[in-house]
Design a protein that fits this description.
Chain lengths: ~325, ~500
């Protein structure tokens, strides 16, 4: 019985952690290029509402509908982060302010809810939600079955992405140059690397991943659109980037840790364990605050290996 | 040496807001030579090399490489044309390894790097040119000298035929400098071109084949190193005394007394390296002591130490026999030291604050009652100072950053003088000002001295020091290397000592 709870918590930690990881991986790409994206929460919501709308309006097989919905969510997230990229990279605005503006503009009381309103998707159950798969028919295998072989396709995709992202960042030329852009744009520029291009591409790609994370909320977790349904997952994702030392593998573990905290409440409630639900719901955010406070000092930032030029707009030194 | 022209820059003009950094500069460099670019700070050396490496674009003028006209829009274009630059401030990613830094930006289309091949190639280059460095070491683990070798390896790896080194010896020990010179000779023996930017005369004499001298953004001339001497170069570099008017002083200095006494002072710079080494000097009441030298030889640190902004590691500072606490600006102020810092708008004043608030920054304690600022009192003081110092401002409440450079400096001088100091430290007080403002500032300094203040004037502008100072000290690499009475000062000799030649 006890081990049973344990397995359920792990399995659902992976489920709840999946959107967090998508957003955090996006954040890693963005921050590795030297751009700080505090607009993740808003980006996820736009992705989520776009995904829900697509799912409600595109017919075809389940696979087709879901794939198109995810792609549309990614596209929407990409568009939102293009705006952020323009503000931060081209206009060289303060990145903290730009990111917060994006979250406020696109977030709960902003564009995402407006779109939900005019598209009439609010609280409409999506016809083809993302379901957990039964991989190789092994989902009933004791212990490993629910954990490894009974997850969603997006979860499996995220594992592939974690590996690909690690190879990309640390073993390819482009990854090396990306990290150089985030560490020392002056050096990168002097070596003929196009700093602006690298920052745009990775900020936009990061936003696309955040959009996919949003789709996971409206198509898998609930699965219908509710205004502000990510409930701060974007902020957790930002903490995860730091928590994971800007590395995909550690961010994946971190995402599952936070996923566990999120799932603990519902799991325990279902088992009639007497504990305040509000307290449990607050746990991930409490952790987020602790992580952010711990790492927000300049000293810690340097020690943890944050990209040295993170949050600093690049300008060629002109007199 | 072949007589083929490798680089030809003709009529280069580059303007920045308020300054003409390059004013019709011509430069011709032969293949297989070490060509020195000599000039004081602000002579336009760095701007010229930044144009050659594609970082800046010239407003007017042409650049030819190997006889072909080129247009560089980015550093990549310059790299592709075989031009590589070793910057004074290294362009290295400190968390990366040597090999990773070397391959950065390489236009190789392969997705993965062959780490081993890169390391082998780096090793080959470092053996061939005597640039010993471990390809797998991370940059932050290396000494400054080693980091410079990585910079050179980087440009060699890219196959650069033309290497520009900006003040390469500034960060090196004498032994490392000798090693570097050997490396440079090997490179030119293979037909490469080395452009060596420096203001150190002996090094230019030691390593170069020809020298082009820049002054005030213009080309003064190109000479063969073998046919010149440090003396000739020095006079080319600092220019002949064109307008050399000694200011007539009302009250001569009281040389019997000493107001500021600095003895055996040592201090570090921001990076923790020794910036000032056993500096001793004294200033008498009413005396203007000029500190000459090329920027970066410890002058800024000296000004900061005396005004209490930078801690001293050993030595002492006294004003009228009372010692000033190390690194305590308030102690320095209390003892009567006024400071006009180099960066007037950031260190000297609060740029976003109003003129009157800036006046009150130093004496706000006497402008308050029960710790509440007395606005009227501050306003009255401000009105008085604005009038007395002839400051052109729309009003007392105008933010200082909106004033012109000359008026910003007047605000600063007014505040510092109004505290009736005993000693005034003025660092580059006329830099960047127009002619009229320069005159005003100089008059104010002389007036201060006439009223009995001991003035320490730190300036890169030798003319300014020659026309204002009673006594001249020359700083080089953190030490006072020469001292002369201004009346007997010989311009060329001072130029030599500024370049590190003590004869």
């Amino acid at each position: 019985m006890n081990s049973n709870i344990f397995i359920i918590v792990i399995a659902s930690a992976i489920f709840y952690g999946t959107p967090l990881f998508f957003a955090a991986l996006g954040g890693i790409f963005t921050e590795r290029s030297g751009v700080l994206n505090l607009g993740v929460e808003g980006t996820m919501l736009i992705g989520g509402v776009t995904g829900a709308w697509t799912c409600l309006h595109v017919g075809g097989s389940a696979w087709f509908t879901i794939t198109v919905s995810i792609l549309m969510g990614a596209l929407a997230g990409g568009l939102v982060s293009t705006l952020l990229a323009f503000l931060c990279i081209t206009l060289k605005t303060n990145q903290t302010v730009a990111g917060l503006s994006i979250t406020i503009f696109a977030g709960t009381v902003g564009l995402s809810s407006y779109l939900a309103n005019i598209w009439k998707v609010s609280k409409q159950p999506v016809p083809r939600p993302i379901r957990n798969l039964d991989v190789f028919g092994l989902s009933d295998t004791p212990i490993v079955g629910p954990i490894l072989f009974h997850q969603t396709a997006l979860t499996y995709l995220s594992w592939v992405l974690a590996i690909l992202a690690t190879i990309y960042l640390f073993h390819t030329r482009i990854g090396l140059q990306l990290r150089a852009v985030g560490e020392s744009p002056q050096t990168a520029d002097a070596m003929g690397i196009n700093v602006v291009k690298y920052r745009y591409v990775h900020t936009i790609f990061g936003g696309m991943l955040a959009g996919v994370g949003g789709v996971f909320y409206s198509l898998a977790i609930v699965p219908l659109w509710v205004d502000g349904m990510t409930k701060g997952a974007g902020w957790i994702a930002i903490a995860l980037v730091i928590f994971g030392f800007w590395r995909p593998s550690l961010a994946l573990l971190g995402a599952y840790l936070f996923g566990a905290l999120q799932s603990l409440g519902s799991t325990l409630k279902a088992r009639n364990v007497q504990i305040s639900g509000d307290l449990l719901d607050a746990l991930p955010f409490f952790m987020t605050i602790v992580v952010l406070v711990l790492v927000s000092s300049r000293f810690a930032h340097r020690k943890l290996g944050a990209p040295a030029a993170l949050g600093v707009p690049y300008e060629r030194e002109e007199r | 040496m072949t007589s083929e022209i490798a680089v030809k820059m003709t009529g280069i003009v580059k303007k920045f807001p308020g300054v003409i950094a390059n004013d019709h500069v011509n430069l011709e460099i032969m293949a297989g030579e070490v060509h020195a670019l000599l000039g004081e700070n602000g002579a336009g050396k760095s701007t010229l090399s930044n144009i050659l490496t594609g970082l800046y674009r010239q407003d007017v003028g042409t650049v030819e490489i190997g006889g072909k006209k080129v247009e560089f829009n980015s550093p990549r274009d310059a790299l592709n044309a075989g031009i590589g630059m070793v910057h004074q401030h290294f362009r290295l990613v400190s968390t990366f390894t040597v090999a990773e830094n070397v391959v950065l930006g390489e236009s190789d289309s392969s997705l993965f790097m062959d780490q081993k091949a890169v390391a082998t190639r780096v090793q080959e280059l470092s053996d061939r040119y005597g640039l010993a460095v471990d390809p797998s070491a991370r940059i932050w683990q290396l000494s400054v000298g080693e980091q410079q070798r990585v910079e050179i390896l980087k440009v060699l790896y890219r196959g650069a035929r033309i290497l520009i080194l900006d003040e390469p010896t500034a960060v090196l020990t004498p032994i490392e400098t000798t090693e570097l010179f050997k490396t440079l000779r090997v490179m030119v023996s293979e037909g490469r071109v080395v452009i060596f930017i420096s203001h150190k005369l002996d090094e230019v004499m030691a390593v170069s084949d020809r020298v082009t001298v820049l002054r005030g953004g213009r080309t003064v001339g190109t000479v063969n190193t073998r046919e010149t001497s440090t003396t000739d170069l020095a006079s080319l570099m600092v220019g002949r005394s064109v307008e050399f008017n000694r200011v007539v002083r009302q009250t001569p200095a009281d040389r019997e007394r000493i107001v500021l006494d600095v003895s055996d002072l040592c201090a570090f710079d921001d990076r923790g390296r020794v910036a000032i080494e056993s500096v001793s000097l004294s200033v008498s009441p009413g005396e203007i002591v000029g500190i000459a030298g090329v920027a970066g030889n410890g002058q800024r640190e000296l000004a900061e130490v005396i005004s209490g902004m930078r801690p001293i590691t050993s030595g002492s500072i006294t004003v009228d026999g009372e010692s000033v606490q190390s690194g305590r600006a308030r102690s320095a102020i209390a003892k009567g030291i006024a400071h006009v810092p180099e960066d007037r708008l950031h260190t000297g004043l609060a740029a976003g604050h109003s003129v009157e608030d800036n006046f009150a920054l130093k004496n706000y304690r006497s402008m308050s009652r029960f710790r509440i600022l007395q606005r009227q009192q501050i306003r009255n003081q401000s009105t008085h100072l604005i009038e007395h110092y002839d400051i052109k401002t729309p009003g007392s409440e105008t933010p200082v950053r909106l004033l012109s450079g000359g008026n910003v400096q007047k605000v600063l001088l007014a505040r510092e003088f109004s505290a009736s100091p005993k000693v005034l430290i003025a660092a580059s007080p006329t830099r960047g000002l127009d002619v009229g403002a320069i005159e005003t500032v100089r008059e104010r300094l002389v007036q201060a001295a006439d009223s009995g203040v001991g003035v320490l004037l730190i300036s890169e502008d030798l003319d300014e020091i020659l026309s204002l100072a009673d006594r001249i000290l020359v700083m080089y690499e953190g030490r006072i290397v020469a001292e002369v009475e201004a009346a007997q000062a010989d311009r060329a000799r001072i130029g030599l000592t500024m370049g590190g030649i003590t004869a």
